[in-house]
Structures are given as C-alpha cells and as structure tokens.
Amino acid sequence: MTEIIASEHSLLVVDTLSYQYGLNPALKNVSFELDAGELAVLIGRNGAGKSTLLRCIAGWTQATKGNIVLKGRSISQHERWLRQHVALIPDTPPFYEELTAWEHLQMIAQLHRLVDWEEKAAKLLASFGLWSNRESFPFMFSRGMRYKLALCLALLLKPSLLLLDEPLGPLDPLSADFLWGELIRYQEQGMGILLSSHQMPQGIQPERYLIMEQGQLVLQGTPNELMAASSPDGDISLEALLETAVASFIDTITSDD
What we know:
Number of domains: 1
Strand content: 15-25%
Radius of gyration: 19 Å
Number of strands: 10
CATH class: Alpha Beta
Structural class: alpha/beta
CATH topology: Rossmann fold
Helix content: 25-40%
Shape: globular
CATH superfamily: P-loop containing nucleotide triphosphate hydrolases
CATH architecture: 3-Layer(aba) Sandwich
C-alpha cells in the first residue's frame, strides 16, 4: 500500500477535498496544509462548510473525492490509527448520559490505555471549573459545561491534531480566555490545532485564517497578510475578513457568469 508523503513540516494535508449531501455540494476542492505546532482558525458564514470539513478531517464523514493526509498517512487507509491522533469536538458534544463526568474521563483513559492519567484529569476538570461536578451527569450540565467536559476528554488524550467546532461560543469570557491560553500552550508543545469560530478573545489573533464560502476555501493567510489585503486602515476582525472575502468571492462568480 502506497503512503502519501506530505511536505517536510506538514502535519495535515487536505488535497482537493469535496463532499456532497445528496445533490448539494457542501465542499468543493478544498486544499490546504497545517503544520505541527500551528494554530489556524476557520471562519465562514453558516452553511459555508466549516463543520463538514472538520468532520471529514476527523474521519467522521467520508469525503466524496479528494484526500486527507495526516503525518504522511492517508486517513482513509488508517482509520483506527487516526482515532489515536485526532480529536474533534463538535459544537454539540455527545455524551453517555448514564456516566458521570469522571467516569467519562476514566472510560477514555481505559480505551486509549493511558497510564497515570488521574492527576492530569483532575487538573483539567479543576482548570475548567468542573472539579466539584465530577460526580454529576452531563445531562445536568449547561451547554458551556458540556463543552468544557468535552475539552477535558480531548486534552487528556493530547492528540497530534485537535479540531474544535465553535469552541468559544458556549463558553463564558473567563473560560474562553483560559481555553485560548491552553491552546497556545499545547501549540507550543507541537500540537496542530484547527478551530472554527465567529469570535475570538479580545486582542488575540491566530497564526492563520482560513476563510470559507459556499463550500470553498476562498482566502487564507496570516493576520498581517489579510490585514494588508482587506483592511488598509489596520482594523482587522473576523467580521471584516469574512465580509471582504465573501464580497470578493461573489464578485468573481458574477464576473465568470
């Protein structure tokens, strides 16, 4: 079986990825790379294809065409291996309602054969303000608490690639700031992180934005690159980037017609 080898520093390679819901295309020839230790933010309007893209990368949804390569391996050929290296937290994380928060962590540790995991699990719960709720059931939690528990489960595994679908929306400002700090810390340890978001903590920018519209990746670049291209006055925000990218994309479609 032939291995597809990515470029030297690439953790993730998404190559001409497409996906259709019936006759409706959700992704159209999406291509990009993500390095180990890189944090990128995926933005776009509702229905732009962000969640579908994350699910394809995690192996939860099989792409119609194209390829996804993680650490030099095509994920379609290494599904069991993929689960050891990628964690996706959807915008509404699922749980086993009959298990407590602590029992979820215990289950994950046993499934992945983690050793000496208890202290790390306790620190994660405490950091996200869930330690006092460790014996409670997820159905008793608020939406924000459920997302925090999902973060604890993912970070306990410390995957090579962490995928987060709208992680900041359910969180209060203090928890959002804490999460961002944690993501930076894991990034510095070599974890690749790709998240979708409509908002960012005040004064904080990722290394790179990936902007989607109508299932296509229409623009990507560092904040400085996008600032120069879309905001001459130096004011950069998710809203400004998205508005400029969408307008440019629509102009291109119109001129092609």
